[in-house]
Specification:
Layout (H helix, E strand, L loop, with lengths): L17 H16 L5 E3 L5 E3 L9 H4 L1 H11 L4
Antiparallel strand pairs: 1-2
């Protein structure tokens, strides 16, 4: 997969409001738990896709996209 590492822009901004920091932290934790659509780069430079647990109902088996969609539905956003 092509990665745009030379022509991209990254921005850092402070998140000062506590509710926003908590919401972002929740999103980061969902992404860290992802075992379906996440990839890890090994020390050899190769990427390996994480393996979901055998239990299809486990939180880690959902993947980031579905977990965030479920979170938005619970909050009444969508």
């Amino acid at each position: 997969m092509y990665r745009n590492l030379n022509a991209r822009v990254e921005v850092i901004v402070p998140i000062e409001g506590r509710p926003l920091r908590e919401r972002l932290w929740e999103i980061v934790q969902i992404m860290r738990r992802d075992r379906r659509s996440a990839w890890d780069m090994g020390s050899d430079g190769r990427y390996r896709q994480r393996t979901p647990p055998d239990d299809p109902n486990a939180q880690e088996a959902l993947g980031t996209h579905l977990a965030l969609m479920n979170l938005a539905r619970r909050r009444g956003v969508v």
